[in-house]
Amino acid sequence: MTRTLISGGLVVTAAEELEAEVLVEDGRVAALALRGSEPARTWADSGAETIDATGHYVIPGGVDGHTHMEMPFGGTYSADTFETGTRAAAWGGTTTIVDFAIQRPGESVRSGVDAWMAKADGNCAIDYAFHAILSDVNESSLKEMDVLVDEGITSFKLFMAYPGVFYSDDGQILRAMQRGAANGALTMMHAENGIAIDVLVEQALAEGRTDPRYHGEVRKALLESEATHRAIQLARVAGAPLYVVHVSATEAVEELARARDKGLNVFGETCPQYLFLSTDNLAEPDFEGAKYVCSTPLRPKEHQAHLWKALRTNDLSVVSTDHCPFCFVGQKDMGAGDFSKIPNGMPGVENRMDLLHQAVVEGHISRRRWIELACATPARMFGMYPKKGTVAPGADADLVIYDPNAEQTISADTHHMNVDYSAYEGKRVTGRARTVLSRGRVIVDRGSYLGSAGDGRYVPRSTCQYLV
Ligand code: URP
Ligand code: ZN
Ligand code: ZN
Ligand code: ZN
């Protein structure tokens, strides 16, 4: 049996803050004991290997419920492999990701899942799970959903955007939702009216509006809120739960808030880029705006305060990254002279925990809410709690010894993501993961990476744990 004692820290979970010692046995949290209590004194004398967490937080490892490693998009692939992307996640204090296995039109959902399993197998630094993207909703893919739910792939992303690529029409969406209502699957929605957006793209390009900032102008907030509204109504008709991904517009948040006030099983996610960046970045000169092209797009700064408020009131309940990096040189520049050819997506899997801690420092959210948004809720939403997302007896010992006073400047020169720029270049933040444990093994410690590719295990999931 391996035994480790994490001593001297402030344990922070979504539920509480405790001056407590954490005993880890065989990769799991065995017990917590308040500092100075009888069991804590016994453990201290037991000769167990001890990690000193004095002056630090002991938090659950981050759960990033939305990443895209090696994702095919617009004729290229996102630049992080499962190996580089999960290692970068570990550096940033994230110990579980849920990536997306893509069904290609004309192919089975299973073939997508098999392909993504093969990409991840033996390469991951941290534990991983999959959602499936449905790009071809038909009788046989609906049947496949039932089997996949039983096997632990319990959430399915549909796209109201990207006609001709990932797009599903309202009838396909309704059918998939009806199936989800029956088999327990959670429908995840990319809510943008892609048909209308494509008209505006065509018009913009015809008028010579080709710079990255027009990506933000054609993908209008109203077309996000319209799609969000439609997705909610379709989910109501189907009697199905709905999780709207990468919400960026105030108007879309209002749709979610209305649905939630009715007591519907409707949930929303946002991402750090929408909280910290804006259309000002998309408008950066010399094509630099391409670094910030993602969908939904960055919005004018005024939206940020609404997103923060929604994160406090739980109208938005998860912050994930939508990590989908493309290099500025050689990938983003595929769209020089035509913003519609810029591969969509931004890096961030390494930065999420720190950016959200910075939000604690700045007073946007509380310390426990930080853990709730970044660890506990995504673990519950996607059926992995309490194995993941908390510090409690029986949980996997995915733990971060977090230094709340460490000062750092985010930069591509020092990050570990396989991408040639940082979306947060030069941003100063307070807080950093000092030591990261994955199932009880130290994989990052004081600036050294001690893990290896293949440490991470696949996590089959139960269904969403919020449904009544
Ligand atoms: O721009 C983005 N978000 N790229 C990744 C694919 C998606 O829609 O999530
Ligand atoms: Zn999307
Ligand atoms: Zn409300
Ligand atoms: Zn995404």
TrEMBL record:
Residues 57-429 form the Amidohydrolase-related domain. InterPro entries: Amidohydro-rel, Hydantoinase/dihydroPyrase, Metal-dep_hydrolase_composite, Metal_Hydrolase, Metallo-dep_Hydrolases_sf. Its cofactor is Zn(2+). Its EC number is 3.5.2.2. Keywords: Hydrolase, Metal-binding. One of its GO terms (molecular function) is dihydropyrimidinase activity. It holds the Pfam family Amidohydro_1. Signal peptide: none annotated. PANTHER family: COLLAPSIN RESPONSE MEDIATOR PROTEIN, HYDRANTOINASE/DIHYDROPYRIMIDINASE FAMILY MEMBER. NCBIfam families: D-hydantoinase (TIGR02033). Belongs to the metallo-dependent hydrolases superfamily. Hydantoinase/dihydropyrimidinase family. This is Dihydropyrimidinase. It comes from Nocardiopsis exhalans. The lineage of its organism: Bacteria, Bacillati, Actinomycetota, Actinomycetes, Streptosporangiales.
